[in-house]
Amino acid sequence: MPLLPCRRRRLLLLLLFLLAAACRGGDASGDTYDISMCRKEPTYCGEVSISYPFYLANETKDLDGYSNSFCGYPGLAIDCDDGKPTLQLNGTDKYVINNISYGSITSMSLVDQEVAQDNGVCPKVDHNVTFPPGSWLFFPGMSVDYLVFLLGCSFTNPLLPITCNLIGFPGQSYVIPKNQVPQGNWSRVCQRIFEVPVLNYQYVDPNSDAWRRGEYGNVLRQGFQLALNDSGRPTNCTQCEESKGRCGYSQDGVFLGCLCPNGRVSSLRCSSSDTGKSFVSRSILLGN
């Protein structure tokens, strides 16, 4: 019987040690961050809801000595100008976001900014859609088709050229659904060629008068879909999110740490104390 209190003391000391270790998180750096970097609730730009892993481009902070760090994924910065959200893909080309759908697969609908701002019947597109290296974005297979812009061409073809003056290239220009482009080495006879993603659409006749006069613009204005490749997350970012943390990155795309809900920065994952939970119950600590 005299040993019982001693055992309880040893048990209490062991549990207190485990609790202290849990509070430290094992891999804690001891650093903290400005919790305003990570919004707890979605914010809106116009009617578009913006939540992690997206973030507002003007909401960056200093993190671990890196200025303009952010809470989110590289390449998912959203500019909100006059209630219009835009996303910049590779290069300088911006796309207006019509909506973002969050779920098991996060996806969004985008429209080329120049197309969205062009009220004419013949919108112009002078670039391909590309992603930065290591991007989490991809085209969902069945939802995407392509229009091919053949600009400034010097050939005769049964296809009729469009009557729109797109970019001012001499020669003929054509806008054709990709699956209807005749075989040939078009790069040798056309000055510029672009493939523009659009939503999957029904069959169109590129030889029709309506198409040649700018009906293709209606297809462009519907935009296209992009989705987030969840399986492409780095291992350390996956572990961070599984522990209720969020990933912090530098502007150069370097993972800086796991941003925990209580304002602590962990190198890998948040502990239970960082998320407001405790491994050890009060009854165990009291020996009941």
TrEMBL record:
<dbReference type="InterPro" id="IPR032872">
    <property type="entry name" value="WAK_assoc_C"/>
</dbReference>
<dbReference type="GO" id="GO:0016020">
    <property type="term" value="C:membrane"/>
</dbReference>
<feature type="domain" description="Wall-associated receptor kinase C-terminal">
    <location>
        <begin position="172"/>
        <end position="262"/>
    </location>
</feature>
<dbReference type="InterPro" id="IPR025287">
    <property type="entry name" value="WAK_GUB"/>
</dbReference>
<feature type="signal peptide">
    <location>
        <begin position="1"/>
        <end position="28"/>
    </location>
</feature>
<dbReference type="Pfam" id="PF13947">
    <property type="entry name" value="GUB_WAK_bind"/>
</dbReference>
<feature type="domain" description="Wall-associated receptor kinase galacturonan-binding">
    <location>
        <begin position="38"/>
        <end position="111"/>
    </location>
</feature>
<dbReference type="GO" id="GO:0030247">
    <property type="term" value="F:polysaccharide binding"/>
</dbReference>
<protein>
    <recommendedName>
        <fullName>Wall-associated receptor kinase galacturonan-binding domain-containing protein</fullName>
    </recommendedName>
</protein>
<keyword id="KW-0732">Signal</keyword>
<keyword id="KW-0325">Glycoprotein</keyword>
<dbReference type="Pfam" id="PF14380">
    <property type="entry name" value="WAK_assoc"/>
</dbReference>
